């Protein structure tokens, strides 16, 4: 494992912890998109089916369990926790799941490496992960007032995706290893979705003002 | 053949 991959995993882990910490300690999920969290839960549930069939390493299994556990507990908090659920802004978080899930399903059926159930679910999860942040980005743009923790959560997620790209580039030059083009394109699309957010995040950081996205 | 590196990525 190279440094970019490890840093990517760590920022991913940090993003999830920041979000759980916010929800658990402040008992608020204001500004957090339940739609995005449900999509991530679906992404991990379809991608990590291999924990039952393959063993890669303790690190790999532990990380998969953390991402599965955290995404489902965040969904549980927002839907079921008697205090947290009150802070959920349903009126603003209106993005439709099927608008993203159906095209990804269709794309996975059309473009994949192998036509097996496990492979199709993996490909579907790659496509869905690329766009799962969209409801969260739309919500941020609508609410305007972004609290620090939500801003950091999205920033860390974007950093994780950028580091994965660097990891693939590094592996290409050091190991001559080609990541499959499906992974490449989905990864690039996903990273580009954060470009706009990154711009405003750095601007607010540079000028030391509160993060606000333009309407 | 299986791509072990791909399987390792999260």
UniProtKB/TrEMBL annotation, chain A:
The Swiss-Prot or TrEMBL record annotates one GO molecular function as: ER retention sequence binding
Subcellular localization: Endoplasmic reticulum membrane
Annotated family:
Belongs to the ERD2 family.
Give the UniProt keywords, A-Z. Answer: Endoplasmic reticulum, ER-Golgi transport, Membrane, Protein transport, Receptor, Signal, Transmembrane, Transmembrane helix, Transport
Q: Where does the signal peptide begin and end? A: 1-31
Record's keyword annotation contains Protein transport? yes
The transmembrane residues are 55-78, 98-115, 121-140, 152-170, 182-202
Q: Name one GO cellular component term.
A: endoplasmic reticulum membrane
Main localisation, per the record? endoplasmic reticulum
Designated name of the protein: ER lumen protein-retaining receptor
Membrane topology term:
Multi-pass membrane protein
Q: GTP-binding: present as a keyword of the record?
A: no
Lineage, highest ranks first: Eukaryota, Viridiplantae, Streptophyta, Embryophyta, Tracheophyta
- Say which species the protein is native to: Artemisia annua
Entry-linked InterPro entries? ER_ret_rcpt (IPR000133)
GO terms under biological process:
protein retention in ER lumen; protein transport; vesicle-mediated transport
């Amino acid at each position: 494992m190279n440094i970019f991959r490890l840093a990517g995993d760590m920022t991913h882990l940090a993003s999830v912890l920041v979000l759980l910490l916010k929800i658990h300690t402040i008992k608020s999920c204001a500004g957090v998109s339940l739609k995005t969290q449900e999509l991530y839960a679906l992404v991990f549930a379809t991608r990590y089916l291999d924990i039952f069939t393959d063993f890669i390493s303790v690190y790999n299994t532990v990380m998969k369990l953390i991402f599965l556990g955290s995404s489902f507990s965040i969904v549980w908090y927002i839907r079921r926790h008697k205090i947290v659920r009150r802070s959920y802004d349903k009126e603003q978080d209106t993005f439709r799941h099927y608008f993203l899930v159906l095209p990804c399903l269709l794309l996975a059926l059309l473009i994949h490496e192998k036509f097996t159930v496990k492979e199709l679910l993996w490909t579907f999860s790659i496509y869905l992960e690329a766009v799962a942040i969209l409801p969260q980005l739309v919500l941020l743009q609508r609410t305007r007032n972004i609290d620090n923790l939500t801003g950091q959560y999205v920033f860390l997620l974007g950093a994780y995706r950028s580091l994965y790209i660097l990891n693939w580039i590094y592996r290409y030059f050091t190991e001559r290893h080609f990541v499959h083009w499906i992974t490449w394109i989905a990864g690039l699309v996903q990273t580009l979705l954060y470009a706009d957010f990154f711009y405003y995040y750095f601007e607010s950081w540079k000028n030391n003002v509160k993060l606000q996205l333009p309407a | 053949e299986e791509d072990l590196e791909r399987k390792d990525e999260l």
